[in-house]
Amino acid sequence: MTWRDQASCLDHPTELWFPVGLTSAALAQVREAKAVCLSCPVMEDCLTWALDNDVWGVWGGTVEDERRALKRRPDRRLHQSDHGTPARYRAHHRAGEVPCDACSQAQTLVVANRKEFPRKGRIAPALGIGRPL
């Protein structure tokens, strides 16, 4: 099993990850895709793959311009280890650490939204982004 087999994006339409243009609809699509990425268990792996393969669309919670900026950074890991995200919460656990408050709060928000909106694709609208419920 690869990281792709565990990705949250598998439960969403492919078009969500490849917005066309800079219209308000396309930007809303990017926000919705990024919201899915935030709760994805393999977001860091996806971002690393995207940085290494120069791809188009939303990958690892970033778009092309954001990945280009990351590539210019001397230490890419700085972005991936930012606190206050569900991905970093999981990284704390993988490292055998107690998650910091910011990461715990981010994870709590994701879990609460999953309980309130259990169907896939309902987290982004619940957070006020993407299409309304």
Compose a concise summary of this entry.
The chain is an all-alpha fold and 133 residues long.
Task: Furnish the topology, listing elements before pairings.
Layout: H1 24-38, H2 43-53, H3 64-72, H4 77-80, H5 86-94, H6 101-116, H7 123-126
Helix pairs in contact: 5-6
Tell me what the structure shows.
The chain is mostly helical and 133 residues long. It has one domain (3-126). Helix content is 51%, strand content 0%. The protein has helices at residues 24-38, 43-53, 64-72, 77-80, 86-94, 101-116, 123-126. The protein is globular, with a radius of gyration of 15 Å. The mean pLDDT is 78.
Q: What's the pLDDT, averaged over the residues?
A: 78
Number of strands: 0
Indicate the percent of residues in helices. 40-55%
The backbone outline, from C-alpha atoms, is globular
Strand content: under 5%
pLDDT < 50 stretches: none
User: What is the makeup of the main sheet?
Assistant: none
Structural class: mainly alpha
Question: Total helix count?
Answer: 7
Which sequence of SSEs, written as H and E, runs from N to C? HHHHHHH
What tags apply to this protein structure?
about 130 residues, mainly alpha, about 50% helix
